[in-house]
Amino acid sequence: MFAKKLFVIGAGFMGTGIAQNAAVKGLDVTIYDVSETQLEKSSKTLEKELAKLVSREKMTEEEAKETQARVHYTAKMKACFDADVIIEAASENLEIKKSIIREVDKYANQNAVIASNTSSISITTLASCLDDPSRFVGMHFFSPVPKMPLMEIVRGLHTSDEVIKIATEVGEFMGKSCVLAKDEAGFIVNRMLLPMLNEACFLVERKVGTIEEIDLAMKMGLHHPMGPLELVDMIGIDVELAVMEVIYEETGDSKYRPAVLLRRMVDAGFLGRKTGAGFYNYNEDGTRTANKRIFGR
Ligand SMILES: NC(=O)c1ccc[n+]([C@@H]2O[C@H](COP(=O)([O-])OP(=O)(O)OC[C@H]3O[C@@H](n4cnc5c(N)ncnc54)[C@H](O)[C@@H]3O)[C@@H](O)[C@H]2O)c1
To answer: Is the pTM of this model over 0.90?
Structure first.
């Protein structure tokens, strides 16, 4: 396979998941973040996730140690110089992503494929930050990355066939089924999923059901493995809002207008599981209760 070394930008929920998945499959991974705190958190999360796999007898302790040793952490972008594939998984913000990609262009090996895990931002727009936009592609993973077997490969207007082939090869090596999507905001899955999750937020706003009732209804009524509000908490309220805003702006279609509640929750710091509070409050012992501040009567 072309890719032996991955460089992942962003040590958050997705970056850590991508690194874990790739390292379990045997790839060498370096995770970069501007925040030392996030790098430390990412390393602890990886250790905890690998320990879970050992306790479930999915891997031996030896394999967990070897996997951990394949993952490196850095706060220096220039460490991407020897990576074959660079995957940007930083915050869903156009200006942040553009400045990252411009910086990557200074240090990356000239043969490296550069990808973004963006959920909604145009791949063609991001590619325009590179001298050679043909080497840029969307590699959109789903959360939690080690468990979800899909990757959307997004072709920008300049993306070369060779780059699509390499991205697909990496995705398949990581155990994903790959689907090719056109560069349209939200691609395939989020274009359908996001209005449904947003509608669940509208139902909370209008108090049509409680947080628990809305989740239970979708799990029992449609056999969804998670309720929509649990899922938004896992995705991150800030990520959900940012993605809705991009799709709404791009399409002008009112079905993508984000629920006001999402904005209030972001302002309040209720970002979901990652901050310990979203639609639910998450306790240290693994239990959770609906967040009364959201559904106060
Ligand atoms: N959360 C999901 O379920 C999901 C699913 C698919 C794709 N995505 C996409 O993945 C990306 C990351 O989402 P996430 O949920 O991991 O977010 P997150 O908030 O958990 O992590 C974002 C990380 O980016 C880092 N960051 C911010 N600015 C940076 C910079 N200039 N350089 C390097 N790192 C920087 C932050 O410190 C943080 O660690 C987004 O583009 C999002 O749309 C998210």
So the answer is: yes
* Model pLDDT for residues 68-104, shown as the tens digit of each residue: 999 999 999 999 999 999 999 999 999 999 999 999 9
Tell me, using a 6 A CB cutoff, whether residue 119 lines ligand 1: yes
Residues with Cβ within 8 Å of 274's Cβ and at least 6 positions away in sequence, in order, are: 12, 13, 236
- For residue 220, the CA-to-ligand 1 centroid distance in Å is 31
> What total of structural domains would you count in the chain?
2
Shared-domain flag, residues 230 and 108: no
Half-sphere exposure of 103 (CA within 13 A, CB side): 15
Say whether both 26 and 59 belong to one domain. yes
By alpha-carbon position, which residue is closest to atom 18 of ligand 1? 12
Q: Which domain holds residue 56?
A: 5-182
Distance CA 88, CA 100 (A): 8
What CATH number is attached to the domain comprising 229? 1.10.1040.10
